[in-house]
Structures are given as C-alpha cells and as structure tokens.
C-alpha cells in the first residue's frame, strides 16, 4: 500500500510539473520549461520508468531544438534507453529515442556509435509486428545509416542501406518515400561515380519512380522535387551535357519562383492571422465583432492549411533524423519526405542559392551576362544573409562564376575584385573551403593570362594541378598552362607546353566530361599550328569546335576555336573560307564583349587583307583594331594599377590565416557541395593583347619548334 501511494504521489507531482512546463513553453520560456522537467529527473521521489523516460525524452528534444547542449541531450537519451530495456512494449517511444540519440551522435561526429545504435534500432524494427509504423521506422533508420556510411566514404554500404529503405517503403506502397530513397541512391552514385552506366541507371530509376507519383502528391513534395531536379542537373553538368541540363535548370527556376510566391502569400496570411489573434485576445471585444473576426480567422487558417505541405500538419513531436532543426517555420523548409523522416537536404535559402548558381553555370557560356550578373547578385545576397546562421559556403562558387564572367567580357577590375574576395574567404576559412584552393589557383592563372602575365599564369595553373586529385581538373589546368606557354612563344616554352599536353592527349576517353577534351584539343591544335603541322591541327581543332558547339554551347570557346581555324585557313591560302570563319568568330566575340578575341580576329583580318591586296579594307580594319587596342590597354591599366594586382599574379601560393573553426561545421560543409565535383564551364582564355595575338598567328615566319609528335 505504501509503494502504491508513493507511485500515485509521484504521478501527481509529474503531472503538475508537466503542466507547468507546458505553460512556460507556450509563453516561449524554454529555460523555465527545461527546469520544470529536470526537477522530475533530479527528484528523490521514485517515478515509474515510463514517466522518467518521457520526461528525459522531452528535455532532450527541447535542448536539441533550442540550444547547442548536445552532450546533455545525449546523456538524457542514453538513460532513456537503459530504462526502456525494462519495459517490454512502448515500441514507438523506443524508436523515437533511438532516432533522437542517433541525431545526437551525428551532431557530435560520433559515427561508429551512431552506426551501432542504428543497427540495434533496425534489429528491433524487424522483430516487432510488421505494420506500417514498423516499416516507416525502418525507413527512418536506414536513411540515417546510409548517411553515416556516406560520411565515412563507404558508398557500397550506403547504397545497401538505401536499398533496404526503398524495400521498406515499397512494402507499404509509399511512392514518396520510394522516391526519397531512389533520389538518395542517385546522389551517392554521383558522389562515387564508378562508371557512367551505374549513374545512368540510377537516373532512369528516379525518372520511373517520379512518374508513378500522382500529380496531387508531387505538388506537396516540393523539397523532393528540388532534390531530384538538382541531382539531374549535377549529373548532366558532370557529363558536360549543358543542353540537357538546361531543361532541368529551367524547371528548377520555374519551381523556385512559384514556391517563392506561394510562401509570400502564406506569410501575408499568417501576418493577418497574427493580427486577428491579437484582436481576438481583447476581453472587451463586442460579440458581433468577435464573431466576424472568428469567421475570418477560420477562413485564413483553412487557406494556410491548404497551402501547407501535408507533413506540416502531422505529429511534430518527432525530431529530425539528421537533416536540420525543426524550430524554423515550415515556410522556411523544403521537406524531402513524409514523417517520421521529414527533414530537408539543404535549407530553403540554400536551395534557392543553388538554383541561381545553376542558372549562372548554364547561362554564362551562352553569353547571357546580364541575367547571370543578376543571378549572381541574388545568390550572393541570399548567402550573405544566411552565411552566419547556416554555414553555407556556396558563395565561393558564385564568386568563381563572377570571375569567369568578368574575364570573358574583359572587365578585369571587376574580376580582380571577385577573385580577391575568394582569396580572402579562403585564407580565413582554409579548412571549410579546402576544396576551393584549386579553383582559386586556376582562376589566378586565368586572370594572369588575361592581363598579359603569361609566365605567372603557367605557375598558377600548374600549382592548381597539385591541389586536386581529380584527373579531369588536372587535365583542364594543364591545358590552360600549355596555352599560356604557347602564348609566350619561345622554343623552351613550346617544349614545356608539349610536355604538358603529351601525357593528357591519350587519356581523353578516361575523363569524366567533354569540357576537358575540348580544352586539350584547343591546346594541342595550337601547338600543332606552331609546329606547322597544319592539316593535323585542322583535324584536332575541327573536332574540338564540334564539342564546344554541340555539347557545351560555350560561345567564348567556339569563338576562339573559329579564330584558330580562320587563321589556319589563311595559312593554307583559303582566303574565302578564312573570311567567313573570321566573321563568325568576330560576331561572337562582340556579343561576349571579349576584346582580346576581337583583337586577335582583327589582327588576322589585317593579314588577310594584306594577302588579298585590299588596301582600303586593311586600313579601315587597322583603325578599328587600334581603337580596340586602346580600349583594352585602358582596362588593363586599371587592373594593373590596383594594389591587389601584384599579389594575385605573384608566383606564390595563398597564405593562410589560422583561425579557430567549429569542428562540426568543418565536417558538414567540407563534405557537402564541395565534393559534388560540379564542373565549372570556364572557357579557355584567348590571347589578351594584340601583341600576343601576333605570337599566335605568326605562322609564316618559318619558326619551327621541332617535329616531336604526340602518339
């Protein structure tokens, strides 16, 4: 009787403290809420195990949602699991505890304990009656387990876990969950990329599953739509299939605009609801007015519910598995899957920034500079607003594209400014942005080449090859360095260019995309022209032009290929073909505001008119060339006059400022977007001045750099 009485007293005390905790939580007093709950855990009174488990679980959920005290939450959850061992049923509570404790281990980067915990959770899920709830929890645990394996670069085990999750989702005929696991498998295949066939099959599987989801459900799966479409873009860009990537970029852009307008409408409705609630809280409100306001409140709430994703109206007690914090409103999240997974791939603002970035990457090679500049500004604004809160580092990729865009249209001072900002970010956060160092060195090389510092350009491009393990990136950097060596023009430099091109010419079939092949063919064709092997040069350049035009839609590279082919036709005394090719090249160069290529073409036109004896055309062309030359010199002088010019072109690696960085931020961000190996579409810089143009077109001077050939 005494034991029963104590149990009843304990239950009454727990109920009272829970009620008080509810009161404080409604008022937003989270600290007081936690104190009320922890009073139960620290009490000398004995409570039933289930009372203590529920209390500790709620404390852990609050700590994870509103604080950074992960260790404290972990301790509560570990105690919960110990207590739950003595309780034969309560499977749902056990599953929730497993899931939330796994989340703690993930935040603490304790991956082996997390893996072991999830395996135990899956074992429990397989031992209980196989109803819908059991299958859903199997999906939850397999998704977390797959993520743990990916972080440890165990891609086969990750794919196995995702396949198990897919089978569980199939057992309950849940197409949205099936799509979640299928898309996740595609993501892993893209990161692993053992062969093109496996990735292509994963893409096809995603398409098949998505088509089986009814339209009313796809409209409520915004996060899953963005995830799937973005993965398709990554896949196409990895193959340098820019034309097919454009279709998915357009779908993403349209969906982003529609979703943004929808969220604006929701925000307006919620603002009005908040105002109505405030009015209804007045105690002296006349009954007729209260009735009218209540009716309007119901209408607004129905509209908000209609616009909200279905999972936002379900049980919110489940914390996210590993995707992010749920304390943000659903309007700020793009959920990937139904409960009990929910979660998101990236925060909504990061997804929006990525969409802007994809528009830039697909639009810049086509010369859509105005739209690209607008998107870069929009993306940078999003990231600057969210960087501190979310730890997003996509800003580097926006800046990378800004550098390339400004170099293409000969705005060297603006390119310099963006490159300095990239350099500043990297030196401040070298660990988080480690993957960006190679790109920065490559862009320093392109900048150096553009402003006429060719020796410095070769240094930075060669340094870039040492900073990446990607064979494709290394090949691209070597091709850039070779072009700079050939622009220098002496025998020693041309020999060094051959040494760079030789090893990569035979490996084009093993590279991941056509971008690298186009870069190599450009450099090799230029070298063959230097060696007076004009017919072989024509074959290589024609093949490169086809790739640049058909697969890449890179107008700058097409223009530069045409310039070389026009020059080649002139050397072969085919003046009719030379004139037509050079006109096309000049038209493209003008569209891109690419002054160096314009000068290059105009220099060849001068030689053409001289060969034809068209003195009037020659004089008119020379007058135009001199104006462009003066314009270029003015822009170069502005860039060279900057205090940052010397440090950017200097033959030295970046100096790193050692700062303390959050360990978890390092692991998450470094593993994130930087490892997707999305190929940027930087064109091969042409010669930057009329002086260098003469070096590249002076084939009649009889210079021979040796007849060493590439097999």
From TrEMBL:
Pfam families: Cohesin_load. GO terms for cellular component: nucleus. InterPro entries: MAU2, TPR-like_helical_dom_sf. GO terms for biological process: cell division; chromosome segregation; mitotic sister chromatid cohesion. It is found in: Nucleus. Belongs to the SCC4/mau-2 family. This is Sister chromatid cohesion protein SCC4. It comes from Thlaspi arvense (Field penny-cress). The lineage of its organism: Eukaryota, Viridiplantae, Streptophyta, Embryophyta, Tracheophyta.
């Amino acid at each position: 009787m005494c034991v029963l009485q104590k149990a009843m007293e304990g239950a009454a005390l727990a109920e009272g403290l829970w009620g008080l905790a509810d009161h404080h939580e409604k008022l937003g007093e989270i600290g007081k809420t936690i104190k009320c709950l922890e009073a139960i855990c620290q009490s000398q009174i004995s409570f039933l195990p289930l009372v203590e488990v529920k209390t500790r679980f709620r404390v852990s959920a609050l700590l994870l949602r509103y604080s950074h005290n992960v260790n404290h939450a972990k301790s509560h959850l570990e105690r919960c699991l110990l207590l739950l061992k003595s309780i034969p049923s309560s499977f749902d509570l056990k599953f929730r505890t497993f899931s939330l404790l796994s989340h703690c281990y993930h935040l603490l980067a304790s991956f082996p304990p997390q893996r072991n915990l999830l395996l135990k959770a899956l074992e429990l899920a397989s031992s209980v009656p196989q109803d819908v709830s059991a299958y859903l929890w199997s999906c939850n645990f397999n998704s977390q387990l797959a993520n743990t394996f990916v972080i440890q670069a165990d891609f086969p085990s990750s794919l196995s876990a995702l396949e198990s999750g897919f089978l569980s989702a199939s057992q309950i005929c849940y197409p949205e969950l099936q799509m979640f696991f299928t898309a996740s498998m595609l993501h892993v295949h893209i990161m692993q990329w053992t062969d093109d066939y496996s990735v292509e099959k994963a893409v096809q599987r995603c398409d098949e599953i998505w088509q089986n989801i009814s339209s009313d459900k796809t409209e409520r799966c915004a996060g899953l739509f963005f995830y799937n479409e973005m993965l398709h873009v990554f896949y196409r860009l990895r193959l340098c299939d820019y034309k097919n990537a454009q279709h998915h970029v357009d779908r993403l852009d349209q969906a982003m605009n529609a979703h943004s307008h929808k969220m604006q409408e929701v925000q307006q409705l919620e603002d009005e609801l908040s105002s109505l609630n405030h009015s209804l809280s007045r105690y002296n409100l006349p009954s007729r007015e209260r009735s009218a306001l209540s009716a309007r409140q119901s209408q607004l709430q129905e509209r908000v519910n209609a616009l909200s994703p279905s999972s936002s109206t379900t049980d919110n007690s489940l914390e996210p598995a590993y995707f992010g914090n749920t304390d943000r409103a659903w309007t700020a999240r793009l959920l990937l899957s139904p409960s009990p997974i929910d979660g998101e791939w990236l925060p909504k603002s990061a997804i929006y920034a990525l969409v802007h970035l994809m528009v830039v990457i697909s639009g810049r090679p086509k010369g859509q500079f105005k739209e690209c500049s607008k998107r870069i500004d929009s993306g940078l604004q999003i990231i600057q607003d969210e960087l501190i809160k979310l730890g997003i580092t996509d800003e580097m990729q926006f800046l990378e594209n800004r550098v390339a865009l400004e170099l293409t249209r000969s705005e060297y001072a603006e390119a310099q400014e963006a490159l300095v900002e990239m350099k500043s970010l990297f030196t401040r956060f070298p660990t988080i942005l480690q993957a960006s160092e190679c790109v920065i060195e490559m862009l320093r090389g392109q900048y150096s080449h553009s402003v006429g510092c060719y020796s410095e350009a070769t240094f930075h491009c060669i340094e870039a090859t040492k900073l990446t393990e990607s064979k494709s990136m290394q090949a691209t950097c070597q091709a850039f360095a070779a072009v700079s060596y050939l622009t220098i023009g002496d025998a020693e430099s041309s020999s060094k260019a051959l040494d760079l091109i030789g090893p990569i010419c035979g490996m084009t079939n093993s590279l991941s995309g056509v971008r690298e092949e186009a870069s190599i063919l450009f450099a090799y064709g230029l070298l063959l022209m230097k060696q007076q092997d004009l017919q072989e040069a024509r074959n290589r350049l024609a093949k490169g032009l086809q790739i640049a035009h058909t697969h890449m839609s890179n107008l700058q590279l097409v223009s530069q290929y045409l310039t070389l082919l026009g020059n080649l036709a002139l050397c072969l005394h085919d003046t009719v073909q030379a004139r037509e090719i050079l006109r096309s090249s000049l038209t493209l160069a003008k569209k891109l505001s690419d002054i160096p290529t314009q000068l290059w073409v105009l220099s060849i036109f001068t030689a053409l008119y001289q060969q034809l004896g068209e003195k009037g055309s020659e004089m008119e062309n020379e007058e135009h060339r001199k104006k462009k030359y003066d314009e270029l010199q003015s822009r170069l002088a502005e860039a060279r006059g900057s205090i940052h010019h010397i440090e950017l072109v200097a033959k030295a690696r970046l100096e790193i400022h050692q700062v303390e960085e959050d360990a978890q931020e390092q692991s998450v961000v470094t593993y994130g977007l930087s490892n997707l190996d999305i190929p940027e579409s930087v064109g091969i810089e042409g010669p930057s001045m009329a002086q260098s143009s003469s070096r590249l077109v002076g084939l009649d001077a009889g210079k021979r750099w040796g007849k060493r050939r590439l097999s």
